[in-house]
Amino acid sequence: MTQAPAPTADTVRRLVRSLLKQGGDDTAGPEVRPVTEGRAYTWWVGARHVLRLAPDREASALRRRELRLRDLVRPHVPVAVPTSVAHGDWAPGLACTLDTKVPGGTADEHDVSAVGEADLAGLLQGLRAVPARQTEPLGVPRTAPRSLEALRRMAVHAAERLAAADEFDAARLHQLTPPGAAQLAAQPGTAVLTHHGLTGEHVVVSADGRVRGILDWTRAALGDPAEDIAGLAVAVGSPAAVRAATLAGYGARPCLRGLWLARCDTVIRLAGHVEGRAPGDLLLLRTQLRRAWEPILLERLSDFKEDEPEP
Q1: At 104, phi and psi to the nearest 5?
Q2: Cross-strand partners of 52
């Protein structure tokens, strides 16, 4: 889908004044600057706001849905969800939202403390509490659980290629056998609202390790809760993710499923980048793989009760 031309600082300043119903010349108003060099459609506005611009019509639909979804989720979770102070179109048919900045750094910058793990547990509990009947009218899609066995097979081949590049010990994937992958298949009737895009940059963490907010709800879906456990394993490390999920009431099956989704995903993504087939930051991809492969006590258990109740 064709993207609109990247906005300039003057474009952003005019847009902010329009959204806030302010006049003035092109140089008036707060300082504006791109959040990062590679993200031309996300801008800091002064010290307290962030402007997010949809680059195409598909992203616009997701941004508009996100506005309604954030209002639905906010009362259920103990961490901040961005609040829009103004929204509209920045180009014909292309949505934008001016949000309040959630104070703090990211999970890529700060480690999550034990209290922060409790914050994450509250996030997972809150998402599970959001009624599905309230999300569906917003257009939140249902997603089928991924096949862990299919993902395992892909990861095994990727691990062999990483081993040849001296990036990974392929034998580590032998811990997940085909019977083990089958045992960790998603159970029927366990779909919940998931953020479905939890990464280090989307988890706002303060210097003291508290989780202060969760950003970017555009990929939210009704689906497998193990996907969010997997996202947290990549964002904050497997031990913290599994402890948070356990505190949220999830049993061994979804925790281990999330762990192995994260491990397979990170192996596949790193292999794709090393081979030049996928974009990304090599250092970050290596860090994400290391986090996902941190050992946890739970994985040393050879089995668990098949009738274990799920939340």
Answers
A1: 130, 175
A2: 42, 97
Distance CA 293, CA 255 (A): 14
- Closest of 90, 99, 15, 13 to residue 57, by C-alpha: 90
- pLDDT score for 280: 84
DSSP 115-176: HHHHHHHHHHHHHHHS-HHHHGGGTPPB-PPP-HHHHHHHHHHHHHHHHHTTS--GGGGGGS
pTM of the model: 0.92
pLDDT one-digit tens code per residue, 109-129: 999 999 999 999 999 999 999
Q: Which of 280, 246, 261 is nearest to 124 (CA)?
A: 246
The packing angle between helices 114-129 and 238-247, to 10°, is: 50
Exposed / middle / buried, residue 159 (Cβ in 10 Å: 0-12, 13-18, 19+)? buried
